[in-house]
Amino acid sequence: MERGKMAELESLETAAEHERILREIESTDTACIGPTLRSVYDGEEHGRFMEKLEARIRNHDREIEKMCNFHYQGFVDSITELLKVRGEAQKLKNQVTDTNRKLQNEGKELIIAMEELKQCRLQQRNISATVDKLTLCLPVLEMYSKLREQMKSKRHYPALKTLEHLEHTYLPQVSHYRFCKIMVDNIPKLREEIKEVSMSDLKDFLESIRKHSDKIGETAMKQAQQQRNLDNIVSQHPRISGGKKSKKEVCASSDLEVKTTSPMSEQDSGILDVEDEDEDEEVPGAQDLVDFSPVYRCLHIYSVLGARETFENYYRKQRRKQARLVLQPPSNMHETLDGYRKYFNQIVGFFVVEDHILHTTQGLVNRAYIDELWEMALSKTIAALRTHSSYCSDPSLVLDLKNLIVLFADTLQGYGFPVNQLFDMLLEIQDQYSETLLKKWTGVFRNILDSDNYSPIPVTNEEMYKKIVGQFPFQDAELEKQPFPKKFPFSEFVPKVYNQIKEFIYACLKFSEDLHLSSTEVDDMIRKSTNLLLTRTLSNCLQNVIKRKNVGLTELVQIIINTTHLEKSCKFLEEFITNITNVLPETVHTTKLYGTTTFKDARHAAEEEIYTNLNQKIDQFLQLADYDWMAMEPGSKASDYLVDLIGFLRSTFAVFTHLPGKVAQTACMSACKHLSTSLMQLLLEAEVRQLTLGALQQFNLDVEECEQFARSGPVPGFQGDTLQLAFIDLRQLLDLFIQWDWSTYLADYGQPTCKYLRVNPTTALVLLEKMRDTSRKNNVFAQFRKNERDKQKLIDTVAKQLRSLINSHHS
């Protein structure tokens, strides 16, 4: 029973499910019925569902049939009406067809006319459009034609402007045309072509200024020289007016009025200021020698193209390279002044161009760039000048170089370049100039001294006398009173040397001009250089003359006299320097001249040389001495060589009359002392191993001759027997041996009042030994005689006592 209930419930559920599926089928679109049918097949009651579906279809068919049966009469009536309308419609169609045929036939001509009108209107519209398009295109073509024409005539900057207008104004209006696209594609190529051509022009410009820098610099330096001349005239004639005169006129007439504004200022650069140049008189400026338009055009072109920085960098790089080439001096520059001038002209030309570019362009070069170039140029120029000027040995060339450097510095200073280092370097060259002057004056002094006759200058008339006095500051009242002919005490080299010293001072002064030095600095420079001339150059020349082998006593005497007068003239040289520098010698830090010392040293050297020469002459005479040291008896007179020697000394000292008294006295005393010493050495020399009393007596005659010469007063000024004291050692020694006064000598030895105070026991012993050896050799058999034996004993005793004195003295 329960099974029956369950089956009944299942059948009810199945029936409800089928009903739901049928409703879904009825209400669902055919495209979406698949899931519903799938649910049917998924169930187990497929057959029952099909039965229900068949039942439902039959129900719907019965409903459709009922509805059709209900409307069938209306349908039949509608069909009948429709058949009637078909007939009328056929008639209407036939009428419309006839009407259309008639209309078509009637409208053919109109259609043809309308078609012709259409074509005319189309052509008219096309023509109008073409005119409009051509109106837009013609300016483009005209601009392009103008561009090509400008390119062809090398008017690149206007061509670039035309290109800008073409690209931004005209081409955008007709950009859809093919020829415009071709133009647009060509625009970068045209720009590049303009850049290349303008760069080529710039390279030509750079080559042009490289070639013309020499001429530009020469022109600038000429104008600087003219300005200096103008300034000198203004300083001499300070009458100032506002009117302009040509520099040539100003130089020709110092009375003309001049304008005070300097054309060499940075803002009013002389070489590049066309306004201040006279119409026909002025030398051409840089812009007259070089066409600057290429650099301006190229700068504008690169600026427009947005490549200004590239252009600036290229220009500066190329100019730096040119600067290095300009600053490289030729290897033979030092040989001629033209070499230096060309070198300076190129440097000045380079910086004049750069200064012109600085003031005529905006930013192509700036002050920092030019200052950097100038620093490099200054260092390289100074280094080159130091090197090449060191090779120069001609003072005239050094002086010309200095003037050229000053002009070079003044020229560039006029353009605003600092040139203090150049003037500092000129002070270095001044030292070199002094050295070259000293070398030159060495030759001058040497020629003067070599050509001098070392004889007093004779004058036969007043004119000659005044000429010498005019050349050399000499005043002597006694000489002026003497009648003609008369003689100056000095020789010709005195006025010549004095005048050459003045010429040297003038040469030093020339170098100091235009160096912007104070009077004190000029005075100090001249005095230092003159001191070098006196203490080194002139002193060495005098020393060389004095030390020459062939110089005679007469020449030495004249040199002493000459240097005495030159020494007195030093105060006049001081006054001469003071007059040309306007610096008083009393000014603090003023350098004093060392001329007095120089001439004193030369005089002392000459005096020493006189003493040396006299001694050498005495030695030469003494070499002729030929004593017979073994002679038993003396001769009747002094030796011939000594008589000749005394005669030579007398004649020599007679020449010393013009020498200062002390010099003559010193020479005479030196000669007598040297003669005495030489005679003593001759007596005691080791080669003379034995001598006799007779030989000693002959030697005594020669010494007496010397003493007689000393007593005769060969040179005035000696007091009493002063000159004889030169022979006192010999005299006492000879007296001791000739008189055989040993008892007195031995008894009084060491006392201030000793008769033989100047006899040294060692000397006496040496001479005694020579006499004892002679006595032993010649009196071998005489030893048996009592007198000889006593004498020998006495000699031995004296020798023993002398040795005792020597030993006690040493202890």
From TrEMBL:
Belongs to the SEC15 family. Component of the exocyst complex involved in the docking of exocytic vesicles with fusion sites on the plasma membrane. Keywords: Coiled coil, Exocytosis, Transport. The lineage of its organism: Eukaryota, Metazoa, Chordata, Craniata, Vertebrata. PANTHER family: EXOCYST COMPLEX COMPONENT 6B (PTHR12702:SF3), SEC15 (PTHR12702). This is Exocyst complex component. GO terms for cellular component: exocyst; plasma membrane. Residues 52-221 form the Exocyst complex component EXOC6/Sec15 N-terminal domain. Residues 234-270 are annotated as: Disordered. GO terms for biological process: Golgi to plasma membrane transport; intracellular protein transport; vesicle tethering involved in exocytosis. It comes from Aythya fuligula (Tufted duck). Residues 259-268 have a biased composition (Polar residues). Gene3D superfamilies: Dsl1p vesicle tethering complex, Tip20p subunit, domain D (1.20.58.670), Exocyst complex subunit Sec15 C-terminal domain, N-terminal subdomain (1.10.357.30). Residues 421-770 form the Exocyst complex subunit EXOC6/Sec15 C-terminal domain. Residues 50-120 form a coiled coil.
